[in-house]
Amino acid sequence: MRGRRSVAAILLGALLCSPALAWDAANAVNAALQDPLLARPPVLDTGPVLPGDASPPPCPGGAGAVAGPLSLAQAVDLALCHNPQVQGAWAAIKVQAAALGKARAAYLPTVSAGVSRMDDRTRYPGYPGADTDVQADTLYGTVSWRLFDFGERAANRHAASALLEAALANHDAVLQKTLAGVIQAYFDAQTSQAAWAARQTDEALARQTLEAAQRRERGGAGAQSDTLQATTALAKATLDRSRAHGAYRKAMAVLVNVMGLPAEMQPTLAEDLAEPADNLRQDLDAWLEQAEARHLAIEAARAQLAAARAKVAATEAEGLPTVDLTGSYYQNGRPNQTLAAIQTHETLVGVTVTIPLFDGFARTYEVRGAQAQVEQKEAELRDTEGQVTMEVVKAHADALAALDDLQASQQLLQAAQAALQSVQRKFDKGAADILEILSTQAALADAQQERIRDRAEWRSARLRLLADTGVLGRSGLAQ
């Protein structure tokens, strides 16, 4: 006994002498009290990790906290941390973790206790010797423990576990959906920015053409009609530049909204990305197999179906017998009873068997309702699988078409640039009229727009295919 006391004294002294150790011990105790039944999933402490990533996304404070131009990876990080749908799905995990803890708590006993100070004074006027004055402290404690049921607690626990798995998968699916939305919005904004820059170049080129036409008119080598046509072309280029600027601002507003940032924030986009290699010419069946096996929305729907089936078993078990053990201790009477003149001690131990006999067929309809929910979840699973399949098929077709368009647009742009250089040399020597050079400039502007659009569509379709398949993480954005 002395040895045990010495060890305890040494441990207590170590805690008192080491504040850091005492702090760690207090944190450990607090963590154990926060989740004593281990219902909290580790992802709530480590953070969500996307497929192919080694760590959760960082959470910058906002667009103003981004150093330099906003890259696609930074836009994704902002969206995954600030998008309201992502935050709502994260909170749903905590809700289902609490529900799982409650389901596990049904296996443990419940303990209640109470203490009260009571003073019972009775006066009989005219009979001094008959007055009574009884004072006592009433104490009581009760322990109740369900020993056996026909699977109700197990079914509720299985349902809660399935719902937690569904919440985890749904959160990951929301991350993937948000990822795809940010990709689309980012490339739309980048395309609009490039189109605006191209329209500014077209406007500058039209202004140069007007100045050249004016010089030719003043020197007697050109007609006034050429100058008027060049003026019209400049006005048209200015209008196109203004419209492109408006489209760029609209696309930026959509991007800021998808990232979950305040509307007044207007980040600057990074430079145009390099063209990725052609590595997506994969058979469509392979992409569909990956989506069916790894898509998180399908996993969430399957978990919801499993939870609904467990709920049917729990509802059926609620109408079966149960066995409960109860133990109670009362000192000086039971709560809300009149005090006795003498002290009393009462101990009560009992086993209760509850057999539901008739509930007005309420259980029958509850079971039918739970079975109908299973049918509903089965339909939702089929609908989710169909939607995922449709999205993968569309994204695969878009990616292949965009890749072919990308190659064709490069050839178109090179031909338009060569044609403009040739016409400009002829125009400077007076061998080409204003209509020819304006027509060539318009063709080059169209080729530039096609090139910008095809590059953005290729990158967007490529990443959306990976996101819709459920295999895209933050690390894949830079590859």
Explain what you see.
The protein has 479 residues and is of the alpha+beta class. The chain is built from eleven helices and four strands. The chain has helices spanning 2-17, 19-34, 43-46, 72-82, 84-105, 152-218, 224-258, 284-294, 296-317, 362-428, 434-469, and strands at 110-122, 132-149, 322-331, 345-354. A four-stranded antiparallel beta sheet has the order 1-2-3-4, with no helix packed on it. Helix 8 (284-294) packs across helix 10. The longest helix has 67 residues, at 152-218. The model has no long low-confidence stretch (mean pLDDT 77).
Summarize the model shown.
The protein has 479 residues and is an alpha+beta fold. It has helices at 2-17, 19-34, 43-46, 72-82, 84-105, 152-218, 224-258, 284-294, 296-317, 362-428, 434-469; strands spanning 110-122, 132-149, 322-331, 345-354. Strands 1-2-3-4 form a 4-stranded antiparallel beta sheet, with no helix packed on it.
Q: Which helices and strands, and how do they pair?
A:
Layout: H1 2-17, H2 19-34, H3 43-46, H4 72-82, H5 84-105, E1 110-122, E2 132-149, H6 152-218, H7 224-258, H8 284-294, H9 296-317, E3 322-331, E4 345-354, H10 362-428, H11 434-469
Number of contiguous helices? 11
Strand order of the largest sheet: 1-2-3-4
Using only CA atoms, what is the Rg? 38 Å
What global shape is seen?
elongated
Helix content: 55-70%
Give me some keywords for this one.
479 residues; alpha+beta; 11 helices
